Amino acid sequence: MDLTWLSHLFLLLALAGCVYGLAAAVLAGRFVRKAVPSLSADAVLPSVTMLKPLCGIEPNLFENLETFCRQDYAGAVQIVFGVQNVTDPAIPVVRRLIQAHPDLRLDLVIDARQHGSNRKVSNLINMSAEIAHDVVVLADSDMVVKPDYLARIVAELGQPGINGVTCLYHGVPAHRGIWAHLSALAIDVQFLPNVVMGTSLGLAKPCFGSTIAFTTVALAEIGGFEAFRDDLADDYAIGEALRAKGGLVAIPTVTVGHTCVDTDLAGLWSHELRWNRTIRNVDPAGYAGSIVTHAFPLALIGALIPGAGTSALAVAALALACRIVLCVRLERAFGLAPHPYWLLPIRDILSFANFSWSFVSGAVTWKGHDYRVVADGTLIPEGSLGHDAGASSL
After folding, report:
1. Which three-class secondary structure string do you get for 344-383?
2. Which terminus of the chain, N or C, has less C-beta within 10 A?
């Protein structure tokens, strides 16, 4: 059987991916050159409550959380930490922070109540009673920020027509191991360019757990955190709800760091599979179309098909070269540390395998708990559905 046509199809997709990557490299430079709003010296600064839901210990947790305690912001600031288990190992870390920063208002909420299938949102619901200020900034526990982070977020939120603020993020390896670097590469050379492309072309309206900022009035208008207690992509759903109230969710040019802690292949595979299935659930068509972003693996497949010819190898080499160009461009645009470029082909092959496997089922794992995603995007704890209960493999 002549499969040359199939080889040509894969190579055509790979070439489309090369064009996509080079376009993303150009748009990244334009993205970071956007106007940056700032707070005037005589402005009355709004008071801010930052919410940090926690679950368990993770590498560099104290250092990550402390970056939020070291903000150059003249307004009143409160940080609320929340856990759901009295034995949670994150509690001593928070106690250390409270001792290290007696001048800050740092509150700890320990509340085991479960309000829905999304444990993070249940934690936020329990924490929300302690919100004391007008502006709320929600950020995941593994984020690292610079001292001007809060001022830039508040300045962005204060712009006309802005109903919320979210942030791009880049990877920060927690150690020198290969798996942490591969995890950081996935963020920096796949997530970042995809978001830049999607937002620049008006094809995506994202909202990320790295940062979601809004006012307490806006939170009440969208139904509080209770409205998202069963959503898999709670951050995306919050963004959609904020936009539905007539405003925009802004994405400033600043990126925050995402600590990459993976120490083995199993952990890396598991959390990336959860990310991929979440994205697939939010935007099935867009996620399927993102196959073109896997140019190098597509070219390799095309080259391995009988009858492909030596030109297929040239396409694979071109795809890898484009990935390196994209990586370098993103590093310069966002001020990122240089990556070990020899990991790029490994990263791309692993990403394509994970992308492909994400279509097999809708199962996800979060903090040791297994769930399935049903057709409306909500979470069902694994084992609570019967075989004919309508589980979806979106």
Report:
1. HHHHHHHHHHHHHHCCCCCEEEECCEEEEEECCCEEEECC
2. N
Question: Tens digit of pLDDT for each residue in 103-145?
Answer: 999 999 999 999 988 999 999 999 999 999 999 999 999 999 9
Number of Cβ within a 10 Å radius of residue 360:
10
6-to-132, 140, 304 alpha-carbon distances in Å: 60, 43, 11
Q: Give the C-alpha separation, 340 to 243, whole Å.
A: 39
Ranges assigned E (strand) in the chain? 48-53, 77-83, 105-110, 135-138, 143-144, 162-166, 168-173, 212-215, 248-250, 255-260, 363-366, 369-373, 379-381
For 38-89, the pLDDT digits (tens) are 776 667 899 999 999 999 998 899 999 999 999 999 999 999 999 999 999 9
Is 67 within 8 Å of 96 (Cβ atoms)?
no
- State how far the Cα of 113 lies from the Cα of 37, in Å rounded to an integer: 40
Counted residue by residue, the chain has a size of: 394
Cα–Cα distance between 92 and 105 in angstroms, integer?
17
